[in-house]
Amino acid sequence: MGAKTKSRRPGIKLGFDNFAIRAMEWKAPQLVDYAAAQKVDTILLSDLDVYEDHGEAHLREVKARADGLGIEIQQGTGSICPTSDMFNTKHGSAEEHLKLTIRVARAVGSKVARCFMGRGEDRPREGGIEGHIAQCVRVFKAVKSYAVDLGVKIAIENHAGDMQSWEIVSLIEQAGRDYVGCTMDSGNAVWALEDPLHNLEVLGPYAVCTGIRDSAVWESPDGAMVQWTAMGEGQVDFRAYVRRFAELCPGTPFQLEIISGVAREFAFLKPEFWKPWTKVRSHEFAKFVRMSREGKPRKPFKAPPGAAGRKAERKYQVSELEKSIKYCRGVLGLGLK
């Protein structure tokens, strides 16, 4: 028999979202240096507060630092939906906030501006999720010419149970696929009662940015518990995920947003749970239920109070991210370096 040949690597860029190590409270230069030390290809700077200021001089310095270290930056921000309780007027109106994010993205070399609507708690508010979608579409259309002129694509995320994958697609198509894509988050899929592999099938063709993590789902007396995990420690078949990702998302980086250790219940056996979920598709929900039947309970992570807790949280977040990078590189064959 001849010597074994190495399996072909999928040629997918590997990176991470700075939110994965949020407890470190690092600014952009430190984050870029850390990304280089981890030998990843990209970093999603998912908030505007990582910069000392938003002046062109500072942003050019960050870009030059990243370029010199071979790190591609993708830029992000938070909620741009004025009817979400997550929207913050710190950066002005929703349109002003999004335009600032687009300008910062252009300055640091990012071709995308990641943003999100809100969270699952927005669903039962007046107007329902459809009302929030309409607001996002309005904001996107108001800044379309600005985004197009700067060559930056808006990347709306499926975030914290706010929208299911088909609802994200509806938003993108209403706004215009030519300048709006999605930030595909595999962990947030389970918070929206979706199997991550199904979420990939729907959102993959629209994905220009990502936030990836593993998930564990198990049955509870009133429905199911969900806990995010480090890569390879949950239930998602990431070998299958990566194979399909390579087909559906060519050129899109695989960026880790590891948020491990907290369990959340989705009490779908209680009738009141379904009031804001009137359009859930039963055959898709069945895949989520199947996940819960196959899962086993996990122990949550709980840091001690005070300074010791902050130190433990930092250590935990770095450890969860670094072992996830190792898994993605060694087991899944991700990364170009």
Question: For the terminal residues, how far apart are their CA atoms?
Answer: 31 Å
Please compute the radius of gyration using only Cα atoms: 19 Å
Number of DSSP helices?
A: 11
Full CATH superfamily name: Divalent-metal-dependent TIM barrel enzymes
Structural classification:
alpha/beta
- Total beta-strand segments: 11
Indicate the low-confidence ranges by residue numbers.
1-6
Shape: globular
The structural domain count equals: 1
What does this structure look like?
Helix 4 packs parallel to helix 6 and helix 6 runs parallel beside helix 8. Helix content is 40%, strand content 17%. Mean pLDDT is 96; it is low at 1-6. The two termini are 31 Å apart. The chain contains 11 helices and 11 strands. The chain has helices spanning 28-37, 56-69, 94-108, 128-142, 144-150, 165-175, 186-191, 196-203, 238-248, 282-294, 306-330, and strands at residues 14-17, 42-45, 72-79, 112-116, 153-157, 180-185, 207-211, 214-220, 223-229, 254-256, 263-266. It has 337 residues and is of the alpha/beta class. The strands form 2 sheets. Strands 7-6-5-4-3-2-1-10 form an 8-stranded parallel sheet. The chain has a 3-stranded antiparallel sheet with strand order 8-9-11. Helix 2 links the parallel strand 2 (42-45) and strand 3 (72-79).
